[in-house]
Amino acid sequence: MSENSEQTEAAASSGAAERGTRKSLQGVVVTDGSDKTVVVQVERTTRHTLYHKIIRKRKKYHVHDEGNQAKIGDKVEIMGTRPLSKLKRWRLVRIIEAASVA
After folding, report:
1. Tens digits of per-residue pLDDT, 57-101?
2. What are the b/e assignments for 53-63, b being 16+ CB within 10 Å?
3. Residues 79/66, Cβ–Cβ less than 8 Å
4. Helix, strand, or coil (residue 35)
5. Each residue of 25-48: pLDDT tens digit?
6. Are 32 and 38 in contact (CB under 8 A)?
7. Among candidate residues 94, 88, 60, 44, the one with its CA nearest the CA of residue 74
8. With contact defined as beta carbons under 8 Å apart, do 30 and 60 qualify?
9. Which of 10, 17, 30, 85 is deepest in the core (most CB within 10 A)?
C-alpha cells in the first residue's frame, strides 16, 4: 500500500510541475480603457532572414487584469492561461514598474 501511494504522489507532483510551466512575457500597457482588460505591447528582437539586420517586432496581447491595477505606461509581466474570452488568453501576473508621472 505505501508503495502505491508513493507512486501516485510522485505522479501527481510531476503532473503539477508540468502544468505549472506556462509562457511568461514582459511588456508595456498601451490601453486600459476596458473593464478588467488591458492591452500589452510586447517587443522582441529578431534577425532578418536574408539581410541579417536586427529588427524590433511588436505584438499586442489582450490581458485579463482582475483588479484594474495596471495603467498606461506600466511595465508588466503576463502569463498564458485558458481562454477567458474571444481575445483574452493572457493574465496579469505583476506590475514590474509603474509608469512615471510627469
Report:
1. 999 999 999 999 999 999 999 999 999 999 999 999 999 999 887
2. eeeeeeeebbb
3. no
4. coil
5. 999 999 999 999 999 999 999 999
6. yes
7. 94
8. yes
9. 30
